[in-house]
Amino acid sequence: MNSQSLCNLACSDSILRSKFGGVYASDELPRTLTGYSCFIVNLDSRAKPGSHWVALAFRNNTCFYFCSFASVPKKGKILNFIKQNSQKLMWNKFATKALRPLPAVNFVFISYTNL
């Protein structure tokens, strides 16, 4: 699924739309949240074809990170973005590979509406 399709899907929900900050390559994340709290990010930089989508949702100084492989960012621009905008990181501990390619959008919606 490409970034425009993910953005259209996330923005099609009236609740999520007001907090959705967009779809980014890992090297294009904004420096700060600027009023938004939910993002979908590809692990690759813009110069690469794209490898895997993850979701970030920020609430109460905590970043909720979702990866369908249950991995956690250990370094790089995504981790820097998380550290700049939160004090705590939480992530899913179990893989959800059966839900691909939409788990990132599902997670962003669930995080915003239920946390």
From TrEMBL:
Q: Which Gene3D superfamilies match?
A: Adenoviral Proteinase, Chain A
- This chain belongs to which protein, by name? Ubiquitin-like protease family profile domain-containing protein
Species: Trichonephila clavata (Joro spider)
Starting at the broadest rank, the lineage of the source organism is: Eukaryota, Metazoa, Ecdysozoa, Arthropoda, Chelicerata
